[in-house]
């Protein structure tokens, strides 16, 4: 199952996020996930594992496990490289051992002090607050993203963590429209207005943190996981599925792309098994009723400022 982007390319409706994958585990996880059926992989320069991912992808293609054209590879421009978009993209391509990217995203709508291409550091001032570069506009960054398309380095370009107003601005000044807006959205943070706005204007929404981040976000930010919600547990029993499968199916039925992450083979298999059932309309409405407006991914903890304020 896939969604056709406004660029004309097809994006698989479920992918695998590679954040926090240990470098020594990546080869087996990537090859194993391809065997399960995953073809869409969501990467980022900031995850600092592109080189290891590249080796695994190259092996998968070289051994005939998968063809390059069957894969959909996304990676992202880090905040400190807004003034060095082309160099940053080429650096990611080199590490991933690819000739082109299927999708390249602006990771966050903020330019920060440059720390060297590929280093993805977050420079902080003496008070521990992110050093924002006020000389680089988001329009300037987008113009460079568009150049990547004309150069043939990237097939589709998009944005990430943009709200309605920043998305509207991007639509206003773009010559190549953003194909995707990747945002946090899950049953406790549904963001219907933003999702509907993007879809109305032909922008595909990809849900990062589609399961709410579960244990990791609970440990980092003290957030409450939607996977323990009694409503979702009840639906899991009704459909004889795991709670995670119900949540991912909900995301797909919203016409969003979901990119759960896991380092456990059993979970990788379970997360991919969401195409053999469909949630009834009343159950979709039931899930809509449990929205808490709860953002779980909070970079404020690391940057000293709230980028979503």
From TrEMBL:
Question: Which Gene3D superfamilies does the record associate with it?
Answer: NADP-dependent oxidoreductase domain
What does the similarity note say? Belongs to the aldo/keto reductase family.
- Enumerate the spans annotated as NADP-dependent oxidoreductase domain: 20-291
Q: Which PROSITE patterns match?
A: ALDOKETO_REDUCTASE_1 (PS00798), ALDOKETO_REDUCTASE_2 (PS00062), ALDOKETO_REDUCTASE_3 (PS00063)
Q: Where is this site: Lowers pKa of active site Tyr?
A: 76
Q: Which residues form the active site?
A: 47 (proton donor)
Q: Which InterPro entries match?
A: AKR (IPR020471), AKR2A1 (IPR044485), Aldo/ket_reductase_CS (IPR018170), NAD(P)_OxRdtase_dom_sf (IPR036812), NADP_OxRdtase_dom (IPR023210)
Q: Does the UniProt entry include the keyword Oxidoreductase?
A: yes
Could you tell me one molecular function GO term of this UniProt entry?
Answer: aldose reductase (NADPH) activity
Q: Is the keyword Oxidoreductase assigned to this protein?
A: yes
Q: Where does substrate bind?
A: 107
One matching Pfam family = Aldo_ket_red
Q: Which GO terms describe its cellular component?
A: cytosol
Q: Which UniProt keywords apply?
A: NADP, Oxidoreductase
Can you name this protein? NADP-dependent oxidoreductase domain-containing protein
Lineage of this protein's species? Eukaryota, Viridiplantae, Streptophyta, Embryophyta, Tracheophyta
């Amino acid at each position: 199952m896939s969604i056709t982007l406004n660029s004309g390319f097809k994006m698989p409706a479920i992918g695998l996020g590679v954040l926090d994958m240990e470098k020594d585990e990546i080869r087996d996880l990537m090859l194993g996930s391809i065997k399960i059926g995953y073809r869409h992989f969501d990467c980022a320069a900031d995850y600092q594992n592109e080189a290891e991912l590249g080796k695994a992808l190259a092996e998968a293609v070289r051994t005939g496990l998968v063809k390059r054209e069957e894969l959909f590879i996304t990676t992202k421009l880090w905040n400190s490289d807004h003034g060095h978009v082309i160099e940053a993209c080429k650096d990611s391509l080199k590490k991933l051992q690819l000739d082109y990217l299927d999708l390249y995203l602006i990771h966050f709508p903020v330019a920060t002090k440059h720390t060297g291409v590929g280093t993805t550091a977050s420079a902080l001032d003496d008070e521990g607050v992110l050093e924002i570069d006020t000389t680089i506009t988001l329009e300037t960054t987008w113009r460079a993203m568009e150049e990547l398309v004309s150069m043939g380095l990237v097939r589709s370009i998009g944005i990430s963590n943009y709200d309605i107003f920043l998305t509207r601005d991007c639509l206003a000044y773009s010559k190549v429209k953003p194909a995707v807006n990747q945002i946090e959205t899950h049953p406790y943070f549904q963001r219907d207005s933003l999702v509907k706005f993007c879809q109305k204007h032909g922008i595909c929404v990809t849900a990062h943190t589609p399961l709410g981040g579960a244990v990791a976000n609970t440990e980092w930010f003290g957030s409450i996981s939607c996977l323990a919600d009694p409503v979702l547990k009840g639906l899991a029993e009704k459909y004889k599925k795991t709670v995670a499968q119900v949540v991912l199916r909900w995301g797909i039925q919203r016409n969003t792309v979901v990119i759960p992450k896991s380092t456990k083979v059993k979970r990788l298999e379970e997360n991919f098994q969401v195409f053999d059932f469909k949630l009834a309309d009343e159950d979709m409405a039931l899930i809509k009723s449990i929205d808490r407006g709860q953002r779980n991914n909070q970079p404020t903890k690391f940057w000293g400022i709230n980028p979503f304020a």
